[in-house]
Design a protein that fits this description.
The protein has twelve helices and twelve strands. By secondary structure, it is an alpha/beta fold. The chain has two domains: 127 residues, NAD(P)-binding Rossmann-like Domain (Rossmann fold, 3-Layer(aba) Sandwich), CATH 3.40.50; 183 residues, Rossmann fold. Strand 7, helix 8 and strand 8 form a beta-alpha-beta unit. Helix 5 packs across helix 7 and helix 9 crosses helix 10. The protein starts with 9 loop residues before the first strand and ends in a 15-residue tail after the last helix. The protein binds glyoxylic acid (2 copies).
Length: 331
């Protein structure tokens, strides 16, 4: 027997996503999407979730006890991101609400962007582009915009999960030595050998690397993981790359360090008070700033939407969603 109309689950999507994925919800659930091309205001979000069973949320939505209180029927939050620091997962678990994320599908794309940042900061690509457009180029010059080699250097990877490992694989082509630290991951010796990678203490990663790239999740332990002390350990020839989460870096300390030449430069895809930047950051030449583009390709954003939708549909079909964050609530 078909489902009674009143039995059909309701899903709210907090922002327009690739349509082909959303179309898969048709006929399975009753769904609606934020009609505005912007993040929902808090009161709009609280109102939108009032009668929903499922929520497809973004990293720009704070999903916490107040949202759960406003959504008494809510049973699943499918986050459109691998990171889920925007969701109070403990509170969700307490209430028996499943949280899912989108790992895997964005790994290679985020590693590509990380490499775009490494290359661009080392070879002053953005500065060079601005220089050309400003009409300042009057001819090849031996000392014009000299950068730093990437080939043969030491790459420090803090957080050697899936994205960190994808970044490391790309470094093979640049004949780099890799130093990494991770609280949970120990690569097997064969992988360390293939990647020219050594696991060392985080301070040693900072001290010995020419490029330090961050691939940790944002949790209490990684908040301000990189501050003044760590930047001083890196030293005046080293570059910091961050395509993880903004608050992993003490951004005020970073601005000060960049201004004083404590490190050579930084390339950032994420910010502590995103979308805002700390005062002074945008005025510095030795920094590249991007608007959180880590997973921003047509292919990957579509796959992320597909995975989030699959998580929702399998949950409502009584199957195990592919990528649960708190699988305990599934029993
Ligand atoms: C992007 O930042 C993500 O967590 O997916
Ligand atoms: C620079 O353009 C060179 O050819 O060395």
């Amino acid at each position: 027997m078909g489902k009674d109309v009143t039995d059909v689950e309701k899903v709210y999507v907090t922002r327009q996503l690739p349509q082909s994925a959303l179309d898969r919800l048709d006929g399975k659930v009753e769904w609606s999407v934020n009609p505005h091309d912007r993040v929902l205001e808090r009161d709009e979000l609280l109102e939108a979730v009032a009668d929903v069973d499922g929520l497809l949320s973004l990293l720009t939505d704070t999903i916490d006890a107040e949202v759960f209180d406003a959504a008494p029927n809510l049973r699943i939050v499918a986050n459109y991101a691998v990171g889920y620091n925007n969701i109070d997962v403990d509170e969700a678990t307490k209430r028996g609400i499943l949280v899912t994320n989108t790992p895997g599908v964005l790994t290679e794309t985020t590693a590509d962007l990380t490499w775009a940042l490494i290359m661009a900061i080392a070879r002053r690509v953005v500065e060079g582009d601005k220089f050309m457009r400003a009409g300042k180029y009057v001819g090849w010059a031996p000392m014009l915009l000299l950068g730093s080699d990437v080939y043969g250097k030491t790459l420090g990877i803090i957080g050697m999960g899936q994205i960190g490992q994808a970044v490391a694989r790309r470094a093979i082509g640049f004949d780099m030595e890799i130093l990494y630290s991770d609280v949970f991951v120990d690569l097997p010796p064969v992988a360390e050998h293939l990647l020219h990678a050594d696991e060392v203490e985080i301070d040693e990663v900072l001290r010995r690397s020419d490029f330090v790239t961050l691939h940790v999740p944002l949790v209490e332990e990684t908040h301000h993981l990189i501050g003044r002390r760590e930047l001083e350990l890196m030293g005046p020839n080293a570059y910091l790359i961050n395509a993880s989460r903004g608050p992993v870096v003490d951004e005020e300390a970073l601005v000060e360090a960049l201004r004083e030449g404590v490190i050579a430069g930084a390339a950032l895809d994420v910010f502590e008070d995103e979308p805002a930047m700390k005062p002074g950051l945008a005025e510095l030449d030795n920094v590249i700033v991007l608007p959180h583009l880590g997973s921003a390709t047509i292919e990957t954003r579509t796959e992320m939407a597909d995975l989030a939708v699959t998580n929702l549909l399998s949950f409502f079909a009584g199957e195990r969603p592919p990528t649960p964050v708190n699988p305990d609530v599934l029993g």
